[in-house]
Specification:
This is YdbS-like PH domain-containing protein. Keywords: Membrane, Transmembrane, Transmembrane helix. InterPro entries: UCP026631, YdbS-like_PH. The chain has 487 residues and is an alpha+beta fold. Among the domains are: 55 residues; 69 residues, no CATH class; 56 residues; 86 residues, PH-domain like (Roll). It contains 13 helices and 19 strands. The strands form 4 sheets. Strands 6-5-4-10-9-8-7 form a 7-stranded antiparallel β-sheet, sandwiched between helices. It has a 6-stranded antiparallel β-sheet with strand order 13-12-11-16-15-14. It has a 3-stranded antiparallel β-sheet with strand order 1-2-3. The longest helix has 54 residues.
Amino acid sequence: MVTGAAGAGFAAGGAVPAFLGLTGPLGVPGALLVVVAGFLLLVAGGVALEYVRCRRTRYRVGDERVELQSRLFVLDRRRSLPRERIRSVDLTAHLLLRLLGLVKVRIGTGESTGGAESTLELHAVGRAEGERLRRELLRRAAGPDTTARHDGELAVLDPAWIRYAPVSFVAPLLGGAAVGGVMQVSEWFGVQGEVIDRVGDLFRQTPVVWIVVTLAAAALLAGVVGALALWVEMWWNFRLEREPGGTLRVRRGLLTARSLSIEERRLRGVELVEPLGIRLFGAARIDAVATGLAQGSDDKHDTHKSLLPAVPRRVADEVAARVLREPAPPTGAPLTRHPRAARARRLRWATGAALVPAFVLAVLGAALDVRALLYAAGATALLLVPCAVLLALDAYRNLGHGISGGYLVARSGTVRRSTVALQRGGVIGWTLKQSYAQRRAGLLTLTATTAAGDGAYDVYDTDESEGLRFAAAAVPGLLEPFLEPAE
């Protein structure tokens, strides 16, 4: 019945524009009758379809396989997964499922394809049954250090972390979405022109610059409110813990409760991510670098690899050390700086990219003999070039690489700075890239290939000799057969 109830919500949402569209030709009573009839028909159809699906769906957990059979009218689907290949059992429950005491169980094999053949989904089972399935399917043969591996709670929600939500990139995006939503709703009700006229009357005596600033501030304020609400929905009740048998479990969510599990033996490291906004406030988040993480989700804002939301950098380093069972966080290890030639490359690319729009405006202004375009070209260059230079210098300062215990560490990026700590034993290959400009500058880009996470992690523009020594020392025996011995 859950699908029918959810369908009722979609039907109710679609009833508003439908009612407004039918009011003209049919009148209010006729339009209301048509919309109500359609609403009831959709709800009844959804309830009936869900009832048939639930009555004709069976699953079985055997010693070797998990099987799912679903019969819907003439369609008969049978699927199964080998138990030894199961790597994740994630539980989610939106508000309606939580009220009914149900959860959705997603069983994955850990394959990177993320397709239908690598997952099984039980759309609505009891909460206790979902927990039982999760424990049973993730249970592995107990090793001698099972007790020592149970560390319990690694991190728990601190409500003060919400202060980083407004400075994320989500806030301006939600602000723009809010403006678009207002215009769409006003169009539904046929008052879009009145809204625009009202705003025009409100700012009739106001200079254009202040109009733009005021509207941008209003949109940003709406985005900040939306970012706070989204953060609360995603991260409330957050808890990161290590369970017996070596499973990392993340639980979070206010309206939609989520329980995500990562087998510790699939963990190859962590990635400390610092988008520019939260980095300016000294914060970072932690993502898992593991094999077979789910690549999709019903919630587009959801992520299956985040172990920690944006938190103070010190806290992020501490949690990274606990997750990796290291006495000191590899993400905070001292790194080797890259040569100044790497800075020159970034300055050239940044200033070149910043001058392109100014050059286009200048050419158009000269060709069309429009002085305003020439002024715009000069203003664009004066605005973009300093910003590009600052970002290029920051990108150079953020470059670094090193070795910390059993992990190789690489850092890069400016708008999104990333520090990855990757198990040296998880590197299965090195790719060496060198463009003509890099070859002349004595630079080299290394790419560590692994079966986990994004599959490849780059060390950009390192010194050629230093980069080769680093790669050889990080994974002994992997690169040496392809190197010429020094004279």
